Amino acid sequence: LITASCLEHVIHLVQRLQEKLGEKQIHKFSLFKVLRTHILPLTNVAFNKSGSRFITGSYDRTCKLWDTASGEELHSLEGHGNVVYAIAFNNPYGDKIATGSFDKTCKLWSTETGKCFYTFRGHTAEIVCLSFNPQSTLLATGSMDTTAKLWDVEKGEEVATLNGHSAEIIALSFNTTGDRIITGSFDHTVAVWDVGTGRLLHTLIGHRGEISSAQFNWDCSLIVTGSMDKTCMLWDAVTGTHVATLAAHSKEVLDVCFDYTGQRIATASADAVFYVDLCIHILGIFQENPFLIRKGSQSFLT
Ligand SMILES: *[C@@H]1O[C@H](CO)[C@@H](O)[C@H](O)[C@H]1NC(C)=O
Ligand SMILES: *[C@@H]1O[C@H](CO)[C@@H](O)[C@H](O)[C@H]1NC(C)=O
C-alpha cells in the first residue's frame, strides 16, 4: 500500500508517532465539576467511549446517568433493592447500561430512555463485577456466590454459568475477540474460560492471597493479576503458564492494569505507593527496579 508518492509522508507520520510516544508529558489536572446528588456514597463510575456521558452507582440503590459537559442528571435508574455496586456501558456503542447489585440481580437499561430492558435473576449472592463482551451481545456478571454468569443481551436469558471457583468472584474481563473470559476470585486463583461453551480452560495457580484484579494486555497474549498477597503476576494467556512475579509492594495490591502499548503495568496498593513497571519483552523479563512515579494516598487506576 505504501507507494513511492506517499512514502515520505508515511515516514514523517511514523517519526511523529515515535516522538509522541517518547515524550515525557506532565499532565496537569484541575477540578472540572463537583456533582452532589446521590444521598449515600458512590460505589463506581464509568464513562461512555467518547466521554460525553458517564454513570455513577451508589449505596442509595440507584445508578445515575450524567451529561459530562453540563453536569446535568439525565436519568436516575431506579429499581434495584440494594446497593448498585458494578456498572458499565456497552462500549464502544454506549446505548446500553448494565448495573449489578447486592440484591443479587443485574439490570440492563437503555441509555437513551433510562428504561429497564431486563432484570437478570439467577445469582444467589451479591453481584460485584460485570462486563459486556466487545460485541455487546453478552453480559458477564461475577458474584459472591462463587460463580460468574453469561447473559444474552438481546434475548435477556442466561447463557452459561461459569462454575469452578471455590470463593467469591470479584474481577472479570473478556479478551478483545470475546471468545475468552477470565475471572479472579478470593480462592486465590484466576480462571480462563471458553465463552462459547462455558468450559474452564486453565486455572492460574500461584497467588497466596485473594485476587483483587485480573486483566488482559492489548493483544490478549498476557494476563496480569494483582493479589492481597502483595504481588502481581504475569501469565501467558494462551497456555496459562506463569511468566513473572512482581514483588515490590509492602501491602495488598488492589488494582493492576496494562497500558495500551503493552510496555508497562501500573499497580495500586494499600501501601499508598503507585508503581509503573516496565515490561521489557512480551513474555519477558521485568526490570528489577520499578520506577516510582507517584506517592500519595491509596490510589486506584482503572
Ligand atoms: C456517548 O453518549 C452520547 C449520548 O448518548 C452519544 O451521542 C455518543 O455517541 C456516545 N459515545 C460513545 C462513543 O459511546
Ligand atoms: C483472544 O483475543 C486475542 C487477541 O484479540 C485473539 O488473538 C485470540 O484469538 C482470542 N482468543 C483466544 C483463544 O486467545
Automatic annotation (TrEMBL):
Transmembrane segments: none annotated. One of its GO terms (molecular function) is U4 snRNA binding. Keywords: Repeat, WD repeat. One of its GO terms (biological process) is mRNA splicing, via spliceosome. It holds the Pfam family WD40. InterPro entries: WD40/YVTN_repeat-like_dom_sf (IPR015943), WD40_PAC1 (IPR020472), WD40_repeat_CS (IPR019775), WD40_repeat_dom_sf (IPR036322), WD40_rpt (IPR001680). One of its GO terms (cellular component) is U4/U6 x U5 tri-snRNP complex. It comes from the Eukaryota. This is Dynein assembly factor with WDR repeat domains 1. The lineage of its organism: Eukaryota, Metazoa, Chordata, Craniata, Vertebrata.
